[in-house]
Every structure is written in C-alpha cells, then in structure tokens.
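Bumping my old thread because nobody answered last time. Still need a sequence for this structure:
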C-alpha cells in the first residue's frame, strides 16, 4: 500500500519545508523511528517544545505529526498537558 505524501503547495518558508520533509520521512520509514509508542511520544514532545503552537502552520505540523506517528487523541492531550506544566518551569 502506497502511503500518502504531504505536499508543499506554493512557495512556503524553509521552516515549513523542513516540517514537510520530517512528516514524509515518518510516513515513508516508520520503522526508522523505532516503532514504539515511547519513541513516538518523545518525538512529538521534542517537536512540541521546539516550536510555537500558536502559529497555525506549526499547529498543523503537530497535528500531522501526531497522525503520522499514530498517536491517539487522548494521548496527545496528555502530552500537551505535560508540556503546559513544564513550560512555566522553563521561563
């Protein structure tokens, strides 16, 4: 079965192109990332901590990343709660 690829319609920023590349690599080679739920959560958390989720493009990236990693919605909510608790400590 051929996996759907994310595309970059129009002229987008370099940052956006990196997001597209990461998502396509996950889609093309899911075993490269270990295939475990723990590693999928870690990848999501690292991405979430590195970007600004208030930006619509970055929020879309997180949504697509969660989908590509097959993370259930309730787990994503728990991960988001962890980040929210940790962010005041980092400030």
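Sorry it took so long. Here it is:
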């Amino acid at each position: 079965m051929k996996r759907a690829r994310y595309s970059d319609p129009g002229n987008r920023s370099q940052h956006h192109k990196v997001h597209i590349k990461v998502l396509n690599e996950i889609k093309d080679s899911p075993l490269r990332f270990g295939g475990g739920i723990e590693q999928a959560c870690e990848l999501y958390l690292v991405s979430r901590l590195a970007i600004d989720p208030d930006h619509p493009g970055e929020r879309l990236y997180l949504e697509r990343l969660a989908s590509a990693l097959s993370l259930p919605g309730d787990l994503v909510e728990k991960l988001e709660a962890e980040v929210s608790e940790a962010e005041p400590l980092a400030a």
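The two ends are 45 Å apart (CA to CA). Let me know if any region looks off to you.
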